[in-house]
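Subject: design request, 414 residues
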């Protein structure tokens, strides 16, 4: 077998077009030409030349490698989530095409993959060097792993909203679980596994500040019982984490976020109370504000995390839905309420239950809010703390530290 044929077989296995390789494969490209961190790192780690044919950079140290090596690396990443139709699709001669959706390599490179390349010559050479013109998702006739998780969450939401609202699956034996109850339980356990996988557990140390805002038409006592969670009989509104009748402590990690979360311009109150609480003990919280960014498709070490992270980022959107304040219970909040109950009663870290959830504010960019699984009985004042017994104090989570009152509040941020 001749040299050319051997080379063609080698390049074909690497996904490289031999004709383009022979014309452009010896060009050098530097890491400055890419924004994708994984491609940049690959070039840095393998750089053997001090110049770039695309941006004309020159350097005293090695900054570039062959464009062939880079495209070979890119094809490896593409193959992690994509395939070619010849491998996995049927062909319909009558229709003259593949049975299923495909994408050409131009659209794949320019639209689907975020290479961070602005140089048109570089983009053209990358596209030309890739052998296969048409691509399709892996296993095109089945849901992708991230689609399975997404549709699993959608199915969970549908079942919880319209079929099984109240179930006690965490306390049942496997053989006692019906099929319709099992599906929600599986998505809950999947969420729990991913929370552990990405270490989304935070210890909020004793002495940490949490701000809670109350709006009222009447003067309130500046006490923990008055400014903390409402009593059960007054918990009449459904919330994103808690249904009516189940009080929980909602607060924020800063004053501006706490006010923005509580604003109700359509129904302004006369008085605004800003209550600063401090934690009396260490609290274990699920921290949904600390989700890692989606790793690059070209990150060999972390790209396997793309599927669970895509799901968690989409799942997080439900935890940040704005609250509709019209006095009705909204079934769209039921799924996140059930997840909250799962975290509260079933999910454990080292045999310890979780005390609450930190989540992104729906009302303020970069703001952080939290829900703690405690009612007004776990909130105290300094005077009350001094008079209570040690056993009573052990059950307290929060102490009211400072209260500010704003009279004639108009519903606007100052």
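Subject: RE: design request

Done. Sequence follows.
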């Amino acid at each position: 077998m001749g040299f050319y044929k051997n080379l063609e077989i080698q390049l074909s296995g690497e996904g490289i077009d031999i004709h383009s390789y022979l014309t452009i494969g010896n060009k050098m490209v530097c890491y400055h030409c890419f924004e994708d961190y994984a491609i940049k790192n690959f070039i840095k780690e393998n750089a053997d030349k001090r110049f770039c044919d695309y941006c004309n950079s020159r350097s005293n140290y090695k900054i570039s490698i062959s464009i062939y090596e880079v495209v070979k690396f890119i094809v490896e990443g593409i193959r992690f989530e994509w395939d070619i139709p010849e491998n996995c699709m049927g062909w319909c001669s009558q229709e003259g095409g593949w049975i299923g959706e495909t994408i050409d390599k131009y659209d794949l490179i320019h639209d689907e993959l975020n290479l961070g390349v602005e140089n048109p010559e570089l983009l053209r050479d990358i596209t030309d060097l890739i052998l296969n013109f048409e691509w399709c998702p892996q296993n095109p006739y089945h849901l992708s792993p991230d689609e399975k998780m997404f549709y699993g969450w959608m199915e969970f939401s549908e079942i919880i909203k319209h079929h099984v609202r109240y179930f006690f699956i965490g306390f049942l034996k496997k053989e006692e679980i019906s099929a319709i109850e099992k599906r929600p339980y599986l998505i809950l356990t999947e969420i729990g596994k991913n929370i552990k996988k990405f270490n989304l557990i935070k210890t909020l140390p004793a002495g940490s500040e949490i701000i809670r805002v109350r709006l009222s038409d009447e003067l309130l006592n500046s006490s923990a019982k008055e400014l903390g969670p409402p009593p059960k009989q007054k918990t009449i509104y459904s919330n994103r984490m808690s249904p009516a009748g189940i009080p929980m402590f909602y607060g924020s990690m800063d004053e501006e976020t706490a006010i923005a979360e509580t604003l109700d311009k359509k129904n302004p109150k006369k008085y605004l109370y800003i209550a600063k609480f401090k934690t009396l003990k260490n609290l274990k919280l699920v921290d949904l504000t600390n989700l890692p960014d989606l790793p690059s498709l070209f990150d060999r070490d972390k790209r396997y995390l793309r599927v669970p992270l895509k799901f968690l980022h989409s799942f997080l959107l439900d935890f940040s839905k704005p609250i509709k304040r019209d006095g009705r219970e909204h079934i769209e909040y039921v799924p996140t309420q059930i997840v909250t109950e799962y975290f509260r009663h079933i999910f454990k870290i080292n045999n310890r239950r979780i005390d609450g959830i930190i989540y992104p504010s729906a009302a303020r960019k970069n703001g952080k809010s939290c829900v703690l699984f405690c009612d007004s009985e776990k909130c105290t004042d300094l005077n009350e703390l001094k008079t209570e017994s040690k056993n009573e104090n052990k059950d307290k989570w929060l102490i009211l530290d400072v209260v500010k009152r704003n009279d004639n509040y108009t519903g606007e941020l100052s």
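The chain has two domains: 3-137, 201-407.
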